[in-house]
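User: Predict the full complex structure for these chains.
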Amino acid sequence: MAQDTADMSGKSAKNMILAEGVTKTFGEGDSKVHALDDVSISIRENEFFTLLGPSGCGKTTLLRLIAGFELPTKGNILLDGQEIGHLPPYKRPVNTVFQNYALFPHMTVARNIGFGLEMQGRSKSEIKQAIEKMLALVQMEHLANRQTDQLSGGQQQRVALARALAPHPKVLLLDEPLSALDLKLRKEMQIELKRLQSETGITFVFVTHDQEEALTMSDRIAVMKAGHILQVGRPKQIYNQPARRFVADFIGDINIFEVDLDEVSGTTGRVTLPSGATLPADLPEADVPAGAVSVAIRPENMRLADARDSAAKLKGTVTNVVYFGAGSNVHVALKGGSEVIVRTTGEVLDDGHEVGLILPDRVQVLVD
Amino acid sequence: MGAVQHSGADARLDEARRRVEADTRRRRRQLLAPTLIVIGVFGLFPLTITLIYSFLSPGVYGGVTWEFSTDAYVQFLFERDIFDDTLSFSGTYLSIYGRSIGLAFGATVGALLIGFPTAYFIASKPPSQRNFWLFLITLPFWTNLLIRTYAVLLIIRDEGIVNLSLQSIGLIDQPLTILYTDFAVFLGLIYSYLPFMVLPLYASLEKLDFRLVEAAYDLYATRFQVLRHVIVPMAKPGIVAGCILVFIPGLGAYITPELLGGGKELMIGNLIALQFGGSRNWPFGSAAALILMVVVMMSLIVYVRYAGKEGNSHG
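Assistant: Here is the predicted structure of the two-chain assembly.
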């Protein structure tokens, strides 16, 4: 077991995909669009890596560049140390699970799964073996001879996965593969995908606009916006220490305060809230200039307290309480006029109640 | 008590269902009526006359005399000796049918090879531009087939554009004889019926999901393999329809072989026309027409059965 862990950590240091200064533009002249603008990224071997961002952020374009459906306008893409930027898709040891699955409707489930190996010219027995193995992996043995249009959405999803995994690619690309499934099935498939990734040991590059999905499944996440990568990190890092205002805003609920920063020293400093209270702060990069900045505090990192509590650095009035089962989001109007959300599992307060807010020990400074 | 009520409701439901079904059937019949009348009057009725005429004797100045005879069909396969009335096998008409089928088949393959890339090209254009290209494909229909065939004649004749340009660039010294050959008929047939190939091909290629093409590329299929394993199978309904639409009219073509083949090498269409004209043998013309129809129908049945089987397997 220890051996395994050592092995895996050894592997994970190696880069599977390395993109260097990749730019992709569509169109010409006035209608020219920068889908990707000088993007560099490294994805490690055996990693579940997620490209997260709103539609139009360039995440799908980056995926298509790795797959070979588009060629980069500028920059290099290396796969396992080899330059692949200008190879056609069929010469790249990379397979894709498409958003709409793109199963071949004129072939059975089994032939769909064997298609990649068939095109590679593998022997019949090898293909047959691989199909059986893949069918077992996605638990679809009983449907091998079905036509793909007789399958449910979840089953089609499994076939698409099996088809893309069958040739054992170095990297599996997944383009929002769960977006067409209903919530319950989506949750199941999230766990299923994690299982497949660890069982096959293949590097997964997953594209989604669903932040919860990204946090649940990923080893690392790259948050993208308008053709740029804003932040790369482990889910916890992305969630708890967002570096950019956009990242903080995009992932989960968050309260953003406009504050004054001083006492900057390396990646720490001290911020002063409008109410006059001060807090130690973490900076996303060294030597952020002192002055007006934003800080982010998650609703679950604040606590409600009595209005007279001396530890309460902010005071306000409850305006709304939204119950969501496991707890409630309490909306509090601050004395300055802005509104914050505090998550509580405790007692439910009435609107109009005067409350104090206890802030976390440290806060995260955001840059734009 | 409950059960009785229940069965009463069931009976009423059945009754209502029957009435709706009867209504639907009647409405369908009414909708079909115009078509049935047209087919009956202009299709089945003349066909019946043709069938009857084919079993009568030819009149001296055309037309028929009302005497039962199977001579028309006998004549198709055998030659009657003028002196002693003995029959000997003759392949003359069979060879006309054979050449017609060969030419029509060749033209179908040619039209498919030319039409497929064309249809693919149009289908891969943005939707807003497709209508323009389809318009260009249908443009020849604005001119009469006879005139278009004369145009082809002018292009391929000894002093035509083809020969003159080949001579002027020094590829040939003597004009190539294209006109009045089977090759000219072959060219003419492809030209005349190409739109009938392109349009159904386009219709099925337009529905092709190009993401499937991407998926195949992604799964290590080369361009040719994508064509063979994805595009062609998905376009099969269009290929079948296009081939039928070119092969059948090509088989019965009259104007093209008459003008471009010089009428010396007969095709079925010319043979039939000749029987009703110069040869004044209406029964034989009728028989030849019916034999053509049977050949066409049989090849259609085989074709559709083959294509239907393939079609079922991908829904």
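The mean pLDDT of chain A is 89.
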